[in-house]
Amino acid sequence: MFINRLLITFCLVSLGANAQVLKPAKWNYSSPESAQVGQEIELVFKATIDKNWYLYSSEFVCDGPVPTTFTFTPHNSYELVGKLIPVNPIDKHDDIFECDLKIFKGTGEFRQKVKVLGNPLKIEGTFEYQVCTDLTGQCVPGDGEFSFSKIKVSGKSIHAPISKPNQDEQKPEEEKLQPENNHQPTPALSAALSQQWPAITGPILDASLKQGDPQSQSLWGFIILAFIAGLAALLTPCVFPMIPMTVSFFTGRGTKFQALIYGLSIILIYTLIGAVLAPLMGPETANHLSTEWIPNLIFFTVFIVFGLSFLGLFEITLPNSFVNKVDQQAEKGGLGGVFFMAFTLVLVSFSCTGPLVGSILVSSAGGEVIKPIVGMFGFSLAFAIPFTVFAFFPGWLKSLPKSGGWLNTIKVILGFIEIALAFKFLSIADQAFHWRILDREINLAIWIVITALIGIYLMKGFRMPGDTGKDAEDKTVSVLRVSLAIAVFTFLVYLIPGMWGAPLKSLAGYLPPVSTHDFDLISAANQEKPNEVCDVPKYEEFLHLPHGIQGYFDYKQAMMCARQQNKPLFIDFTGHGCTNCREMEARVWSDPQVLQRLKNDFVVVALYVDDKTVLPENEWYTSTYDKKVKKTIGKQNADLQIAKLNNNAQPFYVIVGLDEHVLVPPKPYDLNVNNFVKFLESGKAEFNKQ
Questions:
Q1: Where are the extended beta strands (E) located within 530-641?
Q2: Neighbours of 252 (CB within 10 A)
């Protein structure tokens, strides 16, 4: 969990949370310059997608994400031929919505055939789409208009019925969803509240709450965060087992100069990554090793093999030819071998350091050069210190008992730990393929058994193949072994409630998600009574809030209730197709600290920016932002976010006072529960000052 928190922290430091309207996709259209009446022509729609973002295609069998949709305005000068064709989208599995999708990266292309029926030819319409990024957890809906008015047509017009849109099967559904406007507060209540407070117009974001330009942030602060990330990386399962290997390499053959070169090589390699990879590929490549199933399946196998070797099943030795080459390099000064060891360390550990390295490289997205380099320097400096110290003083290993007892005990314990941590990698592959063979409780059961075996082994309850000599025969247990056993069995007791749904937050980064847990008795027993609302929420027939939270889906109605209950208003800008909105609800909102505050301290309103429900015509209005008529719930909510808060990404959370002024800086996607609690508490504290 600490690793995940640092990742989010770096994303926020690098990109900043200052409000901005994102436009990750730019569109252009093309068509033939001329056509004959009766001829079929092809219209081409192309999207240029920003780096590290992806665009949802127009066809996939999945509820949730918003597909790209083109709606043609009917006209008797043309008719549609066939369906809209997406050109070579790629596959993507969405873990939150549990479905397979079609997306575009870099560029996206759609083609639609039409038959020309008359002159002049008038082809126009609108389109909607959604783009998302896995780096910062943002999703941005978008829309636009198109018009093909410059096609020269020759020939006699064909009298034909007006062409129907290719989404005509969706249009009636939207029209059926027109809500009844029967959820307004009573006239007496409205009059009373209007005398105390001004008319409701939308959130007001003061300039003092806008976070500054990320370029103005201190490089020293960035280096310190990177240094902390480097220290955290040492505690990951890919890195920690490499420390004994470093000691073994330098024992009896290394010099202090070689140890210094070893540490400098680590720093040099990571700093070069910051200088070279950042402007070329950005953080997506760095994150690949930690998120894709193939590398994780490979690392699972490697850790199992290493674990079984440490338990004494077999020995792993390097090829003699490789050892001889390293020895030859050592005889010549050994600098090549030292650099090779440092480079091997970076490669092997990259599966766990990738997310942290990637978060630092995010800063290169804005074209920066210095910050990625100094960030990687700070990260590698902390990362290299313990390896350099152990390499500098390899004799520390010689101070351990030479009877083999202590060394084999450490080796066996490390073997058990490696096997336990191996399942972290397997769980990623398991989730990718939905095998459901390693759900959360199965993973916990494996850890409980392994932890019990470590404790029993420390108390000399059984022997392993390498346990020989007097120490193995002596059944007396030292105070040190008893102390370690107490710590191990304490950890075992901590794990057991997790089998019934305890969150085990300190291990959240290593365990499968709670959603894979089959019998969550604790959550079922802790269901709280839902909070009360002032009146029947509009649109509650088809819009909902998670975890039993009672709230609203219309800003004005929610603001009226907040004034009536004298509570701050918590605004959740969300979307049906927002994957990371669902992840925030599942991993952050579900936390008792967050859920209790949302239910008791705030009036909650969820504003869906992609809902297509058409409102009654008397509720339509023309946006001051883009001068377009906003007819649907989603369009009006998106316009509210853009026009009032200058932001169009989801999830996006805002706390508003009774005068509609935003109380604290808005919060974007952040899986750190403590950060979210602080956000809620600071908003409540500012509200109480009013």
A1: 569-574, 603-608, 621-622, 629-630
A2: 10
**What torsion, rounded to 10 degrees, do the Cα atoms 85, 89, 93, 99 define?**
0
Identify how many contiguous H helices and E strands the chain contains and give both numbers: 21, 17
Q: Give the CA radius of gyration of the chain.
A: 30
What three-state secondary structure class fits 355? helix
Inter-residue contact 429 to 476 (CB < 8 Å): no
Lowest mean pLDDT among 364-373, 487-496, 602-611: 364-373
Encoded tokens for 208: 């003092």
Residue span(s) of the chain under CATH 2.60.40.1250 come to: 19-158
Contacts of 423 (CB under 8 A, 6+ apart): 300, 438, 443, 446, 447
- Supply the angle between the helices 293-311 and 405-433 in degrees, to the nearest 10: 160
CATH architecture of 528-689: 3-Layer(aba) Sandwich (3.40)
Report d(CA 603, CA 658) in Å as an integer.
Answer: 11
- Residue with token string 């909902």: 544
The architecture in CATH of the region 19-158 reads Sandwich (2.60)
pTM above 0.70, yes or no: no
Q: C-alpha distances in angstroms, 351 versus 55, 271, 347, 647?
A: 27, 18, 8, 34
| Structure tokens, 344 | 């091997």
Nearest partner of 69 among 24, 116, 110, judged by Cα: 110
Which pLDDT tens digit goes with each residue over 535-549? 899 998 888 888 889
At a CB cut-off of 8 Å and minimum separation 6, what does 360 contact? 10, 14, 226, 229, 274, 283, 372, 375, 376, 379
